[in-house]
């Protein structure tokens, strides 16, 4: 990846009340909002839904959120700039690049494109 730059954009501009779900082998994470998550539930996979048994119970795994939603991000960003660093103590540059590559691959496999893709 040396010399390459990745720019990722996330846009969820729909005024929707639908929750975001991330499905994995062990269960589903259900998020109230993708951009600022205040409430998270873990719903473990259970027995097949036959109608004769109840499903697994969900678990609230939410953590407190700063009332000023972006304040902690702004503080961290300013701290990184003042230190003259290329990465945050909370999130390494390598981790950010790995996440960007994964998201790009998900988009590629899903055939997802955005109008701004051709600009960079």
In short:
The chain is built from two helices and four strands. With 120 residues, it is α+β, with helices and mostly antiparallel strands.
How would you describe this protein?
- By secondary structure, the chain is of the alpha+beta class.
- The chain folds into 2 domains: 17-64, no CATH class; 66-112.
- Helices cover 26% and strands 13% of the residues.
- The protein is built from 2 helices and 4 strands, in the order ββββαα.
- It has a 4-stranded antiparallel beta sheet with strand order 1-2-3-4, with no helix packed on it.
- The radius of gyration is 18 Å and the shape is extended.
- The protein starts with 19 loop residues before the first strand and ends in a 10-residue tail after the last helix.
Feature tags:
single chain; four-stranded antiparallel beta sheet
Describe the protein's topology.
Elements: E1 20-23, E2 27-31, E3 40-44, E4 59-60, H1 71-83, H2 93-110
Antiparallel strand pairs: 1-2, 2-3, 3-4
Describe the largest sheet. 4 strands, antiparallel
Mean pLDDT: 79
Helical amount among residues, as a percent range?
25-40%
Biggest sheet, spatial arrangement of strands = 1-2-3-4
CA(first)-CA(last) distance: 16 Å
Report the radius of gyration as a whole number of Å.
Answer: 18 Å
- Give the helix/strand class: alpha+beta
Instruction: Count the beta strands.
Output: 4
Shape: extended
Topology as H/E string? EEEEHH
Query: Could you tell me the strand content as a percent range?
Result: 5-15%
Number of domains: 2
Low-confidence stretches: none
Query: How many helices does DSSP assign?
Result: 2
